[in-house]
Amino acid sequence: MTLDMLAVGQTATIKNLNNQSTERRRLLDLGILPGTPIENVMSSPLGDPVAYRVRNSVVALRREQARLIEIEE
Amino acid sequence: MSTQAVTIKQCGGCATDCHTAQLTKLGIKVRNWDFAVALAGNPNTGKSTIFNALTGLRQHVGNWAGKTVSRAEGAFNFEDKKFKLVDLPGTYSLLSTSVDEEIARDFILFGKPDVTVVVADATRLERSLHLVLQILEITNHVVVALNLMDEAERDEMTIDVRELTRELGVPVVPMSARRGTGVSELLKAIGKVAAGQFPLQARQIRYEDKKLESAIETLTAQLGETFADLPNARWVALRLLEGDESVINAVRTKTLGTLKIENSFSQLALSEAR
């Protein structure tokens, strides 16, 4: 399952980052790494981007970014 | 606009002169102060509020040499010593995925400030500590300003500051710059670190993987041979192993430790310093 499939209000654990671009480093810097709980806090009106809570801060990710983050319940 | 590279002189006996030259190249006017202090931290942690609390109205706003990133400089006195304070761009990391990070990294690595104050957000400590640890990999002359303590208290969070100080090996000052609390304690900590009165035992990350540590050791030794006065060879070795393009290129072209002067602003500072 990938992060873009997580419904609003749901929490999961990050399993893997499949993003191999330079963005990967930025995601890691923001604390988005395997084993970290992540919650879908809210969605924008058109459903993209989505706000996620990770390590007590809220980060907005686009759908294509979220799709590259593997999660597990 | 012309691009000009200035090579740092390789010498052992004039550490102060070289340091001054480095700071000048970074566009810092080296006059009338005893210690240089850099202010680093994540965005939105109250870094500017702390900057203002420390310097008041005595500040100068400009741009980083060759970059459209604004820079604020100020000064303050503490116990008969003059301190120059440089506000670095707010970053989550120093691994140069952006211009801001590159500026902050270059300043801490090559400008070698006497003290680097890292502003940490008490309510998002994990994210802030990531940057703290990265800076501790470069320098141990660090003071952690644990800001937004009022918000942490409101959220009913308690932080064991004494334990955090022990774990990091550098002073940690809980404060709320917005309310003006903790500013005098921060000044004291900066003064102590600048004067070498704090027994710094900065926590350095050591990796469990023996192969990695031995690779770092080999590279660090080789870098030391090629670049005589590299500020922190271990840090450069880590970046090479990580595949950091800008560092790889700097090593390949032997321009490591060389800072580019890319606009007239820093040229001006250079001529003024002469």
Element layout with pairings:
The complex is a heterodimer of chains A (73) and B (274).
Chain A: E1 11-17, H1 23-29, E2 37-43, E3 50-54, E4 57-61, H2 63-66, E5 69-72
Antiparallel strand pairs in A: 1-2, 1-5, 2-3, 3-4
Chain B: E1 4-6, H1 15-25, E2 35-41, H2 47-55, E3 59-63, E4 70-78, E5 81-87, H3 99-110, E6 115-121, H4 125-138, E7 142-147, H5 149-154, H6 161-168, E8 172-174, H7 183-194, H8 210-226, H9 233-242, H10 245-252, E9 259-261, H11 264-273
Parallel strand pairs in B: 2-5, 2-6, 6-7, 7-8
Antiparallel strand pairs in B: 1-9, 3-4, 4-5
Short description:
The complex is a heterodimer of chains A (73) and B (274). With 73 residues, chain A is of the alpha+beta class.
Description of the molecule:
- The complex is a heterodimer of chains A (73) and B (274).
- Chain A contains two helices and five strands; from the N terminus they run E-H-E-E-E-H-E.
- By secondary structure, chain A is of the alpha+beta class.
- Chain A has a five-stranded antiparallel β-sheet with strand order 4-3-2-1-5.
- The longest helix of chain A is centred in the middle third of the chain and has 7 residues, at 23-29.
- Chain A is globular.
- Chain B has helices at 15-25, 47-55, 99-110, 125-138, 149-154, 161-168, 183-194, 210-226, 233-242, 245-252, 264-273, and strands at residues 4-6, 35-41, 59-63, 70-78, 81-87, 115-121, 142-147, 172-174, 259-261.
- Chain B has a domain at 32-205: 3-Layer(aba) Sandwich (Rossmann fold).
- Mean pLDDT of chain B is 81; it is low at 1-14 and 259-274.
- By secondary structure, chain B is an alpha/beta fold.
- Chain B is built from eleven helices and nine strands.
- A seven-stranded mixed β-sheet of chain B has the order 3-4-5-2-6-7-8, with helices on both faces.
- Chain B is globular.
- Chain B is 43% helix and 18% strand.
- Chain B starts with a strand and ends with a helix.
- Chains A and B meet through helix 1 of A and helix 4 of B.
